[in-house]
Amino acid sequence: MTTIRDVAKEAGLSTGTISKALSHPERVSKKNLEKVEAAIQKLNYKPNMLAQKFRSKTANTIVVMVPDIANLFFAKVISGIESVAQRAGYNVLLGDTRDSSKKEKDFIRMVETRLADGVINLRPYKENDSLLPKTGVFAVSASSCEGTPYSSVRIDNAGAANKVVSHLIQQGHTRIGVISGLHENPHTRDRLKGYMQALSSHGIEFDESLVIEGDFNYWSGISAAEQFYNMKNCPSAVFCMNDEMAIAAMKGFIDKGLRIPQDISITGFDDMDVSKYVVPTLTTVAQPAEKIGEKSAEMLLDMIQGKVTETKEYVFPYEFIIRESTTRYTEKAK
Amino acid sequence: MTTIRDVAKEAGLSTGTISKALSHPERVSKKNLEKVEAAIQKLNYKPNMLAQKFRSKTANTIVVMVPDIANLFFAKVISGIESVAQRAGYNVLLGDTRDSSKKEKDFIRMVETRLADGVINLRPYKENDSLLPKTGVFAVSASSCEGTPYSSVRIDNAGAANKVVSHLIQQGHTRIGVISGLHENPHTRDRLKGYMQALSSHGIEFDESLVIEGDFNYWSGISAAEQFYNMKNCPSAVFCMNDEMAIAAMKGFIDKGLRIPQDISITGFDDMDVSKYVVPTLTTVAQPAEKIGEKSAEMLLDMIQGKVTETKEYVFPYEFIIRESTTRYTEKAK
DNA sequence: CTTGATAAGTGAACCGGTTCATTTTATGTT
DNA sequence: AACATAAAATGAACCGGTTCACTTATCAAG
What angle do CA B301, A103, B307 make, to 5 degrees? Predict the structure, then answer.
């Protein structure tokens, strides 16, 4: 492996000059710049980035912790992070934590040990379950929830849920089912809050039996749909806490012979690409995933570069998209 | 920042002993091991990984180059890579290249400069368009095509396409349309080859006008469906080169009033999760994405660790999955 | 042709681990 | 107790860049 000293010898200059030629070419004479260039070419010199980073103590890397990489929503957030990071000359180290706190610890350790400059967490913050130390680690929570104790970017989940459910109520629905995420998930909590707000502000009483717990994955949507179908009094509309479960629920109901939206209205959350492919297309809430990623990265870089010191919370607007899967309530259901 | 020398002083030992205690604890006496442990605790010492990697010259990191992170197929391959890498103690650095060769070069440079030990490329190899140097970089191509000149993992794309199209022919279809990827894409080439083989082995003449070029994305599927619909002699079945375009085409045809599969049969490729959600569910080819990722990582690690030197090609079996979107040919079409 | 100021270049020290030849200590044998 | 041998510990050198106090070259002004 050729080192900077080899180049120095070849060019007849000192290592300091070579180093400067590479990082601050404007501070080196044109004549010598050419010599350096020639020597580098001749020796096919590639600076050892590990040595560079080690000495200069900046990794130019940010870590992104993802609970599940095979999730389209996260993929889009990452895409946004990537684009901002790249522009700023930072690398993005992606950590698929698979909800394992051991892995999360490993990635946080990378920041503590200067392998990375900061971390963006895509797993929503849960009280008493944060592995992030209070100090010494620059961190941003993307797609977070209310009450995250460090810098975060999110949408108003409760408000969005409220909006969706209010729309269903205005369409005449009064028995509105919910397919939620896991109860302990912070997103579930926020969105359920919005659901209940919508009911109460329209004078509808909350019926606990209409909330079926899912886990944000496909099969839980299918199973929830079956449970609803078998109720003596099936709801006329179902608010699903993400698109995947909503699409599953539609399939579940269709297989039972119900028509959507004539017999039952369905709403989702996230606006995945699929949601506009599916037949019928899905009424849902669009989260600006890519922008959430971009903003998170910007916030983190500002912290790393010392431009910002206090913790901030950025709340993006969401978009409620009405498509074919919802319609006015009519008597005929089931 | 506390260094190993601080720990040595605190424990009353030499740096060498501390270092050994951390990497080969079995070679240090129990008594001193405890002293070291105590000193580390007391000083809250975190070894500087950059220094470690710099000195030991192994980054324990592999780079994965992805043309598009927001693509479910890639996400699954990555997931497989991650799991193998993690198990071997390697980190995975994800590079979203967005088909930009500049970015690809940057990531390859990371390997050349020892920031990473090897690279897995998820973009299929295209002749005269490879940025990988012939030597000095450990590389594996995942989800590759026939004729990749370095180690690779793939399925038999041509064979799978042949199988799909042969099935359609056996169901009585003779005019079979194709929605392809971009012509220059190697996957397009391989799959088209399979399509033509199926036709010729059943004595059906190839009709160029039945191949419509798409780009693997949703809208190109919609547009292709429209073009087929407007033909004087619309095909009775369409072979789509990925699921996304197949789902789009189904929607396109349905919107025109055609029924699937009664009026027109549709097949996809990839078996995305959505493909079993969609109504009707999609007949397609399943690629073992996760396994492709795992195998790629295993091959790369073997190369890095010097266990294997020659370049290898691993071809996974594919799975042809018949669902609801295809049926026997009947006269009534359109 | 000095002088002074600025630009360019030098090279040894440094970053914080790991490594290894060498010294010290522990263990076993007779 | 004396000696051989293995195990443990030592600490200086090293990795390949960057940094910075210092020297040398350059050039405009007097």
Answer: 10
